[in-house]
Amino acid sequence: MEGHEIELRESSQLLASRREATKHVKKRLGAGGQELSYLEHGYVTRVLNEVFGLNWGYQVVVEPKVRTLPPLRKTVNGREVLTEQEEVIIWLRFLPSANNQQPRDSFGSAIYYPKNPNASYGDALKAAMSDALKVAVYRYGDALGLFLYEKSEREAVEADLKREQSMAKPATITLIKQLAKEACIDDLGHISEDITNVEATRLIVELRNKIKEKKEKQNARG
Questions:
Q1: 3-160 has which fold?
Q2: DSSP characters for 128-148?
């Protein structure tokens, strides 16, 4: 890596933070229905502003190309449905504002569904430009998505995302603590927030049953 790139990376805490970047990883469908990981455009813009200031930019090198793809096949209510799709491809040049930094060319693409009334070519074009920008800048470091291009790291991030989606929400943890207090179970008063939805559901059911038994015993004595 060039010395100036190292200086750029070290000038920003965000550029050194893979953990921060993984919070902004999303999923989308690529050509052929393949699921792809990407960073949110707003997050990438924020990091670029942090590193380069407000003077960086980009330009479209040639007119965007549109490539017809095989129809997307889906099964809806037991019937196979074919959806026409096209790939919008754009050649973009990233223009950094820092001294000694050369422009970087890259290609980006996005899927456009011409028969979908809720889809527009303009939106697909903007998505392709966003994709091209991210491809152009990812080499600056993990905070701009470098780790997404390393297979082992990409798989680790995807595993983390799935795990995060399976974790119980803070409101669920609060409910468990409230139920534990009502059931007079002190051990759950300091329950870890690192539990899954499945575990949380099991605890809630058990606690509600204990509360029910407790009330029945109190009524029997009364």
A1: Enolase-like; domain 1 (3.30.390)
A2: HHHHHHHHHHGGG-GGGTGGG
